[in-house]
Amino acid sequence: MRLPWGAGWTSSVPRGKTALEPLTLLQLAISVLLLTTLAAPVPTARRTRSLVAATGIATGGLLAGASAMLAIQTGQAPDFRITSATTSVLAFHLRLDPLASFALLAFAIVSIAVALSLPAYEARTKEAPSRGTGSMLSLLFLSILLVATAHHATTLLAAWETMSLAGYFLVTARHHNESAQRAGSTYFVLAHITGALLFASFAALYAQTGSFDFDSYQHLAATPLVTIAFVTAFLGLAAKAGLIPLHGWLPNAYREAPAPASAAMSGIMSKMAVFLMLRYAVQFLAPGPAWWGYLVLTLGALSMLIGILYALQESDLKRLLAYSSIENLGIIFTAIGLGMLLLTSGATTLAILAFAAAILHTLNHATFKTLLFLASGHVENEAGTLDMDQLGGLAKRMRWTSAFFLVGAIAISALPPLNGFVSEWLLYQSLVGTLHQSGAVLLTVTLATISIMALSGGLAVATFVKAQGITFHALPRSEKAAQAREAPTSALIPLALLALACAGLALAAPSLLAATQLALATEIPALPDAATTTSTDLRILPTSTSLAPLAVLATIAILCIIPIILARGKVTRSMAAQPRGPVWACGWRATRARANYTSLAMAKPLRMMFSTMLVPVRLVQRAPTADVLRPMVSFDSKVTPLVERFVYEPIAHLTFLFAGRLRIIQKGSIRVYIAYILFVLVALLAYVSVTP
Amino acid sequence: MIIELTLQLGLVLLAAPLLLTLAKKTKAFWQSRQGPRLLQGYYDLVKLLRKDILLSEHATWIFVAAPTIILACYLTASTLVPIARPTAPLGFVGDLFLLVYLLATARFFMALGGLDPASPFGGLGSSREVTFAALIEPGLLVSFLTLVAVSGTTSLDAMSAPLHAGILAVPPTLALALAALLVLIVAELNRVPVDNPATHLELTMVHEAMVLEHTGPNLAFIELANGVKHAVLLAIVATVFVPWNPADPTTLLGGLAWSFVTLAKMALLMVLIATSESWMAKWRVFRVPELTTIAFLLAFLAALGSVLAYGGT
Questions:
Q1: 3-class DSSP state for residue A149?
Q2: What angle do the packed helices A489-507 and A549-559 form, to 10 degrees?
Q3: Element (DSSP H or E) covering residue A304
Q4: Alpha-carbon gap, residue B61 to B116, rounded angstroms
Q5: d(CA A351, CA A282)
Q6: By the 8 A CB rule, do B227 and B20 touch?
């Protein structure tokens, strides 16, 4: 079957019988990852173990990426199916459809970079992760590959649970740490809630359609059962993506996992929630009632703002990145929610633009967040800490890591000309296009969303100026940071590749946009489209030439020539040749790092301005000391995690209360339990005999 | 297009130092001083360009590269605004967002340049700058939506079309949006009451604290970039929000007159801002959110009114 969505690309490529079918490559990728999972823990030497895992994962990633590219180019959507003769419930059905292909592109970028960084990370890390880490990483990627391509509920759920389990073992890879154990338990609970909600969702879909195969879920109308399916799926996926208020597991899990695992989890595992959500929005469900869209949009916008507010207040580099993931997933879900709203109001073309923005931002975020997490791994290994108040001055000691982190920071702050800007620009354009729909509620919500997005954009710049500036610039704030060395060259290669990918995705944005739009157009049925034919849309919708990041980049680069010429060589000579002097400190020689701004100081104005949301608390303690003139004072300050306190704690409390009540039926005697079983059996038999 | 681009860049680069001197001159007038010569801005630039760079002993390449990148970003932003001609040289569909984010890119490097040389003041300036900018950005973007809703385009030079056509001729929404935009532009330009460009007192500096360590050509670029930023934001008010211009830009002579009128409007705005600056004290740092919040609310109301009245058309 040849879908029209590939036609835009295939015209220039000679078609013909190729030796390599996308499906063959996909099967190869699955087999390689399966073998890697089994083989990686076997060798006794740690170095061999990580090399085996790295080679396997990188090969799997390459094969999966190649199969996705081939599928996109040839416009095929091949199926692979193993079904049971007796029941339709059990089936293994994969399908490399357009959505899956784009998921696999992100998968390839992340998996290759993570694999390349793994051996150097494991060689340099101070706290060795457990023996099975490489294997679990491989299992994680294998299950992600299956989740991305699954086309049957059973296949999907099995892969999904495997993914959650592999994630658990990665979070607790340093299981000697109590903090890792705690992060693991929270993750485990929320992953199970996610799984349970997805089971419920597919059960509802089964009740509606009588099938577990995705082929039967085509644009289902919003019956009560379908509504249940949507709501449960959305809540489950929101928890997996870490949307607020379901984000509790995320900051600690990403913090405790080894850096390559954090990169994999943030870069691609959380994105599986996005692609499944997209599947619901554009494949499974027909345009539903407006409140579905509002639900997704509201939670997305909320996560965007609160995520970045918390990120700004973090002084732990990896937790900062984790909270920033919440922000970016918020942006993606905002785009999906907007697309759903637009589908409901019949503006298909604009809806496709919003969904395309979601897909492109997913791809972009996978790239730069992987880059940032891997770079944070270098900082952790070489400077011995992730506490930004202990870091500083690393730009001189880890020049390349610092430069690559800078590229990631620019991209994730959505600054032109890198890829983050392109996808946020697309979302802005589709939001502005929505201003021409009708309905006071929709218009007000759209305006509010634009405002929240602009505020989050400004806060993201603040956050990443802080992350880059406090970590890498000024003076080192500790002995460890002062003695940091550059990471080995082999560890810098994946960073360089990802930095190039950030630029490459920006340059390829026009053709990627065209491809995603074509792909989405085949998924979304041609509805009566009220808005596409008006001239308004022509002024909003981007054409292939309307945003050429290359042109922006070229303009900025060319205009740099003006100052360079004016300075006559003074700004372009080598850093060693520049005259140096002490900094101005009102006549003092401020050579001490303590005279510099810290992470807390940098974020302090916004902490005070948003104090109603952040509720900062400070702990100042005076230690009793003999020295009257120089008392010892300790200071600690943190923001109150409101969701944890007001949502999680009451729920956990109620759960334990309920469990305490249930203890009455626990007698600890085996005869009582046999009696229970007998009782349930009799009750079930009675139920079956009564119902016709 | 190349000619148009060169013309506009030349005009912006020439106007930039003049605008800053004009502001100083106006403030001097209200303080009964004579103030600098009108050409003083150019002399300062030439003097700084002749000098050598002196770097902090802790600075890295970011600090040296930042002024160049900042100037290039503002110059790129200036190509999206109609100044020399009624059409922007490099304008395209959706360049509004590019403009706002180019300002953010320049700010990113400015703030990083403040942190890099390990100056005790740099961090203070950077922290306040990114804070204020985050508060300014929503209002700045939303104030444009009043025009976007009516014109249906996010391209800066086409946005004012409905004003020419007489729609929104006596517009409460436009007045609200313009008021919000003016307040936010004053804040974005680091002028009183948010920041004082004339101060070097440690406790009150924002912009100046960030650029304290820059010397020679790099300081010249920072100053020039500041001038270009003034030119870009004032030109937005002068050509997008108050686009009326009696000259007919289709003829050669009329075209010259058109850009002259635009420059005169920008100069007038600068004088007005400098005048208001002379009559006002700088606010405390923690009062700035009040200002930006009020401006945001005005902009939001204006946009909402405009969207509800003209949306769906």
A1: helix
A2: 110
A3: helix A290-313
A4: 9
A5: 10
A6: yes
Q: Is residue B266 part of a domain?
A: yes
Residue A285 DSSP symbol: B
d(CA A76, CA A87): 28
Q: How does residue B167 score in pLDDT terms, banded at 50, 70 and 90?
A: low
In whole angstroms, give the CA distance from residue A524 to residue A518. 10
Chain A: closest CA distance from residue B252 (Å): 27
The answer to whether B94 and B157 are in contact (CB under 8 A) is no
* Chain A / chain B CB contacts < 8 angstroms: 291
What is d(CA B166, CA B155) in angstroms, rounded to the nearest whole number? 19
Contact A605 B300 (CB under 8 A): no
Place of tokens 């007005």: B272
A32-87 pLDDT, tens digit each: 999 999 998 888 888 899 999 999 999 999 999 999 988 888 877 888 888 877 77
Backbone angles phi, psi at A202, to 5 degrees: -70, -30
**pLDDT tens-digit map of B250-291:** 888 888 899 999 999 999 999 999 999 999 888 888 899 999
Query: Is residue A157's pLDDT more than 90?
Result: yes
pTM to 2 decimal places: 0.93
Q: How many CB atoms lie within 10 A of CB A562?
A: 17
Q: pLDDT confidence of A14, banded at 50, 70, 90?
A: very low
Q: How confident is the model at residue B168 (pLDDT cuts 50, 70, 90)?
A: low
Mean pLDDT of the region A546-573: 75
Q: Chain A: residue nearest B135 by CA?
A: A455
Please determine, for residue A641, whether its predicted confidence score (pLDDT) is greater than 70: yes
**CB-CB under 8 Å, A457 with B61:** no
Burial class of residue A176 in the structure, from the number of CB atoms within 10 Å of its CB (0-12 exposed, 13-18 middle, 19+ buried) = exposed
Residue B252 in domain: yes
Calculate mean pLDDT across residues A301-312.
95
Asked if B312 lies within 8 A of A473 by C-beta distance, the reply is no
Residues of A in contact with B148 (CB under 8 A): 432, 435
Q: Mutating which of A400, A407, A435, A444 best tests the B interface, going by the most B Cβ atoms within 10 A?
A: A435
Q: Which of A234, A236, A69, A215 is nearest to A151 (CA)?
A: A215
pLDDT digits (tens, 9 = 90+) for A355-381: 999 999 999 999 999 999 999 999 999
User: What does the buried/exposed string (b/e) look like for B25-63 if buried means 16 or more CB atoms within 10 Å of the residue's CB?
Assistant: bbbeeeeeeebbeeebbeebbeebbeeebbbbebbbbbb
B32 inside domain: yes
Rounded to the nearest integer, the mean pLDDT of chain A is: 87
Alpha-carbon gap: A554 to the closest alpha carbon of chain B (Å): 10
Domain assignment present for B176: no
Please tell me the total count of domains within chain B.
Answer: 1
Q: Do B76 and A468 touch (CB under 8 A)?
A: no
Mean of pLDDT values over A405-421: 92
CA distance A361 to A356: 8
pLDDT single digits (tens) B47-100: 999 999 999 888 999 999 999 999 999 999 998 899 888 888 887 777 889 899
Sign of the dihedral defined by the CA atoms of residues A392, A397, A399, A404, in that order: negative
Residues 6+ apart with CB under 8 A from B75: A559, A562, B9, B12, B13, B228
Question: Which of B5, B60, B223 is the best mutation test for A, with the most CBs of A within 10 A?
Answer: B60
- Residue A74's φ and ψ, nearest 5 degrees, are -85, -10
- Domain span holding position B159: 2-135+154-164+199-280
**Mean pLDDT on A648-659:** 90
Q: How far apart are CA A126 and CA A132, in angstroms?
A: 17
Amino acid at A168: Y
pLDDT score, position B86 = 85
Give A16: exposed, middle or buried? Use CB within 10 Å, 0-12, 13-18, 19+. exposed
